Amino acid sequence: MEPTLLAADLGRSLQHPQDYASPQVLIGDLTPDQATQTPPGAPYSIAENVAHMHAWQNYIVRRVRGENPPRPDGEADWPKVEADAWPVPVADFLAGIRDFEALLTAPAAGALLARPYSDDHTNANRLLNIALHNAYHLGQVTLLRRELGLWPPEGDDEAAYTTNCP
Amino acid sequence: MPAPLSLKDHLRAQTERAHRLLTNDLKAIALDRQNASPGGVARPALHIVAECAMVNAFIADYLRTGTAAPRPSPEERETRLRSFDTAEKALACLDQATQNLLQTIEALDESTLGEISDQPLGRPVTRFALAELPSVHMMYHDGQLNYLQTLHGDSVNHWR
After folding, report:
1. Which of A42, A96, A99, A164 is most buried, most CB within 10 Å of its CB?
2. What is d(CA A97, CA B144) in angstroms, rounded to the nearest whole number?
3. Is there a contact between B42 and A143 if contact means CB atoms under 8 Å apart?
4. Considering the entire predicted model, what is its pTM?
């Protein structure tokens, strides 16, 4: 399989997943109060899930770029997000997806099968793992939205994805 | 220098891992809560796992035969999901569908993974994207099972 085709699939799985609503649709219409509300029993708000996804997405994107960022451990792993700060993580996360996509355009796509670090992972493995990590937490965002009475999101088009699985 | 991980190796590893996590997490939910709908709005854990099984079977069938099985109507789908009323039934279906999927992945010709088809999803996608869909789908729902666990007061990681 050509790296460019793999890159196209990676990009699509981030921006336009095959089987659930896109990140933009899932978080783009939320007010700060909605995004930072934590239902009883829930460990994190939607905003904190988004900040967590961004922390790891940004870390991996920078690693694939050849940088050496600090691991997002401790508070950086699950940053607290107050309502007035919500525009920051949502903008950062969605911008991070665009940064991710920039890694998938030629000629960078040619580096997808490279193994620049000693842990035996290709850059494609790293990016695919981020797509999985995002899927995991976007599933939780969907449940949080349902619990908060915020389902379906504005602009949701179930026909645009496959399995209709909120 | 280690040999590059092939795309098929990646698909197999990702599918096996997502299947294992989903299985462990369903088993970790108390029996009397597996078929419950927290808050009346979340889907029961059994339905989530059963749907993953149905998607795995649908994708494996298409990759193997080149023909997409007819999609069930929403009513048929709900009836089918409700029929999985125990973890044994849901996990048996998930295990069988995932094994079929793994065998199908094993048999794929890696040189065909870039071929594009618009039949199963109604829009053009590569065979690689189709083969990857079940694992992403299972991870999406595993996040939901873990969330349901926390609502039930269980914050333990059951992945190992």
Report:
1. A96
2. 22
3. yes
4. 0.90
Cα distance from B110 to chain A (closest Cα, Å)?
Answer: 7
Across all residues in chain B, what is the average pLDDT?
90
What is the rounded distance in angstroms from the CA atom of residue B23 to the CA atom of residue B94? 8
Six token digits for residue B56: 């795995």
Look at residue A166 and tell me whether its pLDDT is greater than 50: no
Tokens of A131: 């797509």
Assembly ipTM: 0.89
Task: Give me the residue label for tokens 């179930």.
Answer: A158
In this prediction, residue A66 has a pLDDT band, given cuts at 50, 70 and 90, of confident
Is B60 within 8 Å of B97 (Cβ atoms)? Answer: yes
CB B37 within 8 A of CB A138: no
The count of residues in chain B is 160
Q: Do A120 and B128 touch (CB under 8 A)?
A: no
Cα separation of B155 and B45, whole Å? 16
Rounded Cα gap, residues B77 and A158, in angstroms:
15
Residues 6 or more apart whose CB falls under 8 angstroms from that of A113 comprise A3, A122, A123, A124, B4
The angle formed by the CA atoms of residues B100, B105 and B110, to the nearest 5 degrees, is: 165
Q: Which two tokens stand for residue A165?
A: 């699985």
Contact criterion met (CB below 8 Å) for A25 and A36: no
